[in-house]
Write a structure and sequence with these properties.
Layout lengths: L15 H8 L7 E2 H7 L6 H9 L14 E2 L16 H9 L12 H4 L4
Helix pairs in contact: 2-3
The structure holds a DNA duplex (13 and 13 nucleotides).
DNA sequence: ATGATGACCCAAT
DNA sequence: GATTGGGCCATCA
């Protein structure tokens, strides 16, 4: 792409690499924040991944399936005082065939991507 | 400019 | 298994 002259982060969503990786997660699979960070070339910066995803404002993103990103425990992470809106992520994953155990956790050995 | 927060992670206890 | 403490760095007040 003909060079992008440094593009200083003068505005949010300055993580094209992160969105690119998330976009690459196949349907019915999940990835952890740490994985996305590493795959995006930001090893150890898992927090920035979460921040970047939050910048999406959870719209109906088919372009960036944010719901396929979960934490390293296999659980869904959300802001404190999570309400009913947070259940959306679980429902979206279940709709893709991802199962949750009684504790609300996903079996990462089975659904983690890449394999 | 500093200080506190945060869709996190990991090792040690 | 649960808790504690350190690390990472962009964004907000």
């Amino acid at each position: 792409m003909t060079s992008s002259p440094s593009t200083p982060s003068t505005r949010p969503s300055a993580y094209p690499a992160i969105y690119e990786v998330v976009r690459r997660i196949p349907r019915g699979r999940v990835a952890t924040y740490g994985q996305v960070a590493t795959l995006a070339g930001l090893p150890g910066r898992a927090r920035q991944v979460g921040y970047a995803l939050h910048a999406l404002r959870h719209p109906q993103d088919d372009a960036v399936p944010w719901h396929r990103v979960i934490n390293a425990r296999g659980e869904i992470s959300h802001r404190a005082g999570a309400g009913l809106e947070d259940h959306a992520q679980r429902q979206l994953l279940e709709a893709e065939g991802v199962t949750f155990d009684t504790r609300g956790r996903v079996d990462l050995d089975r659904y983690r991507w890449p394999r």
